[in-house]
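Following up on my earlier message about alpha-D-galactopyranose. Here are the inputs again, as you asked, copied directly from the submission form:
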Amino acid sequence: MTREREGTREVVRRIQTSFEDVFGTADGTVVVRAPGRVNLIGDHTDYNDGLVLPMTIDRAAYVSARARNDDEIALYSLHFNDEVRYPLHERPPADAGSWVSYVSGAIEELRLRGYLTGGVEILIDGDLPLGAGLSSSAALEVAVVHALDVLFGMELDAVEAARLCQTVEHRYAGVECGIMDQFVSRLGRAGSALLLDCRSLEYEHVPFDPAAAGLALVVADSRVTRGLATSKYGERRGECLRALGILRDAFPGVESLRDVTPDLLASRRSVMDARIHDRVRHVLEENARVLHAADALRTSAFNRFGELMNQSHASLRDRFDVSCAELDTLVHAAQRTDGVLGARMTGGGFGGCTVNLVRATAVNALKSALSTAYRQAHGRSPRVYVLSRNYETKILSGRPRPGEEAAAR
Ligand code: GLA
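Thanks, got it. Here's what our run produced:
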């Protein structure tokens, strides 16, 4: 992260000044913001056709884009101070998972679908920590696609846009992720969490304003960046597929782990090794927890919500085996702190962040408990963010689409 929090107007002004520096003028640009996310509950369920309850955060990817009248693509990342130019019909050299792979991948998918036929200039900025498990890549994909959508009047359906961004992750970054991150970045709403059924893609904005309830959402970044995460993520996906195969042998109607009931799982217990059985159990119980958690939000039953977060962490640690010592240290320190309602790892795991629901009066106690415990166990401090609001994907400057205001929140 390169700077302290700025107001939206300052961010837009700074991006436009940078755009002028790189591309001459900022005339004819649109500026779009797409937020990162924290998942409140429901991890490793999305790619099993399950349920998730993520929420956008107040950190985001920002994109300023302008059409060219030739077919050149010109990309500039402020974070990396890096510029790439290439003709629309070619692919630039890009390592999987590099900023160029996400941006040029999004451009390529729009071109392949016939939405993009000419060149563009794109400048990228953002204040999401990269590789910290807050979906900086999903935010970048969503911001680029939305900026080009607005610029060229593509009128992409928002769900289609989220799926396109997921495809970018699969094809150009080599990560076989589920739909959660791109979906919530594109369709999440300020003041709400998003309950998503990853099979039907039906969703509900569940109002959630922690501050109004005297609470705060606190994110603690372990600063353990991905590393093993991608390969282990693929390994877990593989285990879920293996389990599905075993269950299908006996029950051909089972299409995904979403169709598996506890009784059905129990009936196949003897032909599954304990590890695979545990993976499925996590998915089934986590789906149930998501529904209970959404109910708890609807009825302001925040203590209950916190308990479900704690249970989710235990299951991700013990049954799905995607936590790590650093995440466990942060979660345990939080759970021992007075005023903390619940704490869990969030996202893919093997590093990244924890999310904590805490009474507003206990935020400082939590911060110091996290720092002390982390220092003692791992010799350094976590990065701690208190979410003050949550953003939605938005046009900040340039032409709004009907029904969408270009405004600074
Ligand atoms: C990563 C993936 C998501 C999801 C989570 C785990 O964030 O990108 O699709 O699978 O891990 O819930």
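One observation from looking it over: The pocket of alpha-D-galactopyranose is lined by residues 43-44, 46-47, 177-178, 180-181, 347-348 (CB under 6 Å). Hope that helps, and feel free to reply on this thread.
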